[in-house]
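We modelled the chain as a single entity of 126 amino acids. Its sequence is:
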Amino acid sequence: MSQETEIVDNGKYNISFNYYGNKIRVYKQLIDVLGNPKYIQFLINTEDLLLYVRGTDKHDSNCLEVPKFNGNKKFCYELHGRYFIKKISSLAGWTLGGLYVIQGKYLEQYNLIAFNLREAVRKVND
């Protein structure tokens, strides 16, 4: 990230999981605070029910490429992974119906965002 880039940190970094829609939505503000990396990784702490999203510019087999945000109305990009969503839902004790949104906290010292799966909010509509 260039030094001229200013990040407005309002502390709202969301990610959503929708089993029926087979979608995980990663929002642009999350990508921005991570320094607009080329790739992101999902890391899971199963004991504490924490999900971490980490940005990296080095490709790894566990990385997902971050697309460019060119005029996307929702300011997010969607990943498709029913198996991953099902695993997260099972771990967190969510039902497989509906949409779950989690707000994460940026941990500057590690340059990652932590999401407490226990704090997910179930939404009725996508």
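As a brief sanity check on the tokenised model: Strands lie at 13-18, 23-27, 39-45, 50-56, 64-65, 76-79, 99-107, 112-116, 121-123. The first strand starts at residue 13 and ends at 18.
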